[in-house]
């Protein structure tokens, strides 16, 4: 029996988990949660995850874990053939994305503010520094740090495309990530995210 992932495709955390699962060859049973309808607040789901957050993973032995970073670490630890992958905590990246994107999705904001633009560019600058002298975020080979970051960075790229002249290493890293076979797991969700955001932003 495959582990069950309660998910919403556009969610960056969900996409990070899907990319990681694909990379380690793990099949997941996907259960999409209708959050606008409040399915995550129903007693059956709260029994699984009292914090009623997405993504949530239920393993085949009933063990439950939520928060995408925790899920990624758990999956690699339990299911990957090798456990020598580095996990780079990027809570600031995901939280910043949520702070910028959520008001747009909730129809509370129609345009990126200059503060939003500066904030996204700061993330790109941060990545540019991390990528100095290396192809991938945490090592010379791809690790779960890249899988975790690409879901958020691809979302930022929808909001404010990466400027290859200002951030050449970040732009190249993004292209490298897109060429990975496991990036396929990100495509559906990022297309949905892009469609939602672009329909809500005033051009």
From TrEMBL:
<dbReference type="GO" id="GO:0004364">
    <property type="term" value="F:glutathione transferase activity"/>
</dbReference>
<dbReference type="Pfam" id="PF00043">
    <property type="entry name" value="GST_C"/>
</dbReference>
<feature type="domain" description="GST N-terminal">
    <location>
        <begin position="1"/>
        <end position="83"/>
    </location>
</feature>
<dbReference type="InterPro" id="IPR004045">
    <property type="entry name" value="Glutathione_S-Trfase_N"/>
</dbReference>
<dbReference type="InterPro" id="IPR036249">
    <property type="entry name" value="Thioredoxin-like_sf"/>
</dbReference>
<dbReference type="GO" id="GO:0006749">
    <property type="term" value="P:glutathione metabolic process"/>
</dbReference>
<dbReference type="Pfam" id="PF13409">
    <property type="entry name" value="GST_N_2"/>
</dbReference>
<feature type="domain" description="GST C-terminal">
    <location>
        <begin position="75"/>
        <end position="203"/>
    </location>
</feature>
<dbReference type="InterPro" id="IPR010987">
    <property type="entry name" value="Glutathione-S-Trfase_C-like"/>
</dbReference>
<comment type="subunit">
    <text>Homodimer.</text>
</comment>
<dbReference type="InterPro" id="IPR004046">
    <property type="entry name" value="GST_C"/>
</dbReference>
<dbReference type="InterPro" id="IPR036282">
    <property type="entry name" value="Glutathione-S-Trfase_C_sf"/>
</dbReference>
<protein>
    <submittedName>
        <fullName>Uncharacterized protein</fullName>
    </submittedName>
</protein>
<dbReference type="InterPro" id="IPR040079">
    <property type="entry name" value="Glutathione_S-Trfase"/>
</dbReference>
């Amino acid at each position: 029996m495959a582990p069950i992932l309660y998910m919403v495709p556009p969610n960056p955390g969900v996409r990070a988990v899907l990319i990681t699962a694909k990379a380690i060859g793990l099949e997941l049973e996907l259960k999409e949660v209708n959050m606008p309808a409040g399915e995550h607040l129903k007693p059956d789901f709260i029994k699984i995850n009292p914090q009623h957050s997405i993504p949530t993973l239920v393993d085949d032995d009933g063990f439950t874990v939520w928060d995408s970073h925790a899920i990624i670490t758990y999956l690699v630890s339990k299911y990957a053939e090798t456990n020598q992958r580095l996990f780079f905590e990027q809570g600031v990246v995901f939280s910043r994305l949520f702070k910028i994107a959520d008001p747009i999705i909730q129809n509370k904001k129609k345009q990126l503010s200059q503060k939003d633009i500066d904030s996204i560019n700061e993330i790109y600058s941060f990545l540019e520094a991390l990528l100095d002298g290396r192809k991938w975020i945490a090592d010379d080979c791809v690790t779960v740090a890249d899988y975790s970051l690409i879901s958020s960075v691809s979302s930022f790229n929808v909001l404010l495309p990466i400027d290859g002249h200002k951030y050449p290493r970040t732009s190249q890293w993004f292209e490298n990530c897109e060429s990975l076979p496991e990036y396929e797991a990100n495509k559906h969700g990022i297309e949905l995210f892009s469609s939602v955001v672009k329909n809500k932003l005033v051009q």
